[in-house]
Amino acid sequence: MHFQNSFKRFIFISTILCSGFCVFEFYAFADYIKGIDNLFRDDKMGTNELKEALIFLCKGELWRMAVLWTPSLIISYLHLFSQSLFLRKSKFYDRSSPSLPTTSSNPAIASIRKPICIITGATSGLGAAAAFALAKEGYYIVLAGRSLHSLSKIVSDIQEQIDDACVKAFEVDLSSYKSILSFTRSLQQWLLDSDMHCSVQVLINNAGILATSYRITAERCDQMMSTNYLGPFCLTKLLLPLLEQSPIPSRVVNVTSFTHRNVSSMEVTGETISGKYFSKLSSYPFAHVYEYSKLCLLLLTYELHRRVGLVEKSQNVSVIAVDPGVVKTNIMREIPSCLSWLAFSILKLLGLLQSPEVGVRSVLDAVHAPPNLKKKFFATCFLVKFG
User: Fold this and answer.
1) Helix (H) / strand (E) containing 33
2) CA atoms within 13 A on the CB side of 371
3) In terms of CB atoms within 10 Å, which end of the chain has fewer, N or C?
4) Could you please report the per-residue DSSP string of 122-176?
5) Contact, 174 vs 193, CB < 8 A?
């Protein structure tokens, strides 16, 4: 009990110090911008970018990210470190080629030459890193993304770097139900035309955005809520029959975020889940919406895990959530570049910033964890590879 109280005090003190550090850094950056503004008087583009950054600094949502998200990240790592330290063990799941029986009396198992792994948001960042890693391990990678050009580039890169890599790309916009439905139909048709077993072994819901303005989809929903939660929900629902038809254990991996810890209260209504509620506010609370979307995805993971356990034909399917921590991707592309550069610099200074190749370890752990594992949440820890 004494240790628990001391550990809680340690977390509290760390949080206060980190919050103060972030506030200090952002104030210092504001002064820095004012000091160098004269250097950009003759550069219209540079001046406009600085003005945009200054305006962005006045938004409460940015300060929410600065003051709350970093302490939440540190708390996550402290929690993981305490678990791995006092349990005195860490698990390293086998990341060799997926094990398929070479001889089996079950013709369905024998028909699976390579397990199929679908990865959304696979054109860059964690998605691309996961695609490379799992292609090396012998999975048949199905890339799903919004840009055919970017998808084609990733496919070419994988095939150039990995011998005998099997990769297929499909265009899909996760903020559009029509696009998701079209993708699932195209996928099923491709499986039939390719004379492959009509099943999927792994689905990684990785796609996500951090939109700084309210944008409405064709279904009249908020784009960020659609991409981060509603899209993965619909995709998983539509692909569940293919996951259930797998003759070997299949898995859904949902990539969540530590930011869900900052949701203190949330009224679950149709308007909140669809994001329509946020259009009524004077300014778009993008940090709140991102937190909400990731919390919803985490809750979906636990509820789907509970439900598949109740249905006999779904008991072969497992569902796991993953928090990769802070990974240097282009998710902050809508935030002024100088501010995103500063944020990444601070996180790197604190030792909290990871490359996609490092951040993807938690995703790989979730993919390779045993089917009967009770643990349903994975995260990256810098000090110990904890799985």
Assistant:
1) helix 2-36
2) 12
3) N
4) TTSHHHHHHHHHHHHTT-EEEEEES-HHHHHHHHHHHHHHSTT-EEEEEE--TT-
5) no
For residues 126-157, one letter each, b for 16 or more C-beta atoms within 10 angstroms of the residue's C-beta and e for the rest, the string is bbbbbbbbbbebbbbbbbbbbeeebbeebbee
Sheet containing strand 377-379, strands side by side: 166-171, 140-145, 116-120, 202-205, 250-255, 317-323, 377-379
Phi, psi torsion values for 197, nearest 5 degrees: -65, 130
Average confidence (pLDDT) per 10 residues, the chain, 387 residues: 43 44 45 45 62 83 88 81 60 55 53 86 93 95 94 95 93 95 96 90 96 92 95 96 93 94 84 86 92 94 88 82 90 88 87 89 90 60 32
Helix %, strand %, coil % for the chain, to 5? Answer: 55, 10, 35
Give the tokens for residue 341. Answer: 């550069």
pTM (global) more than 0.85: no
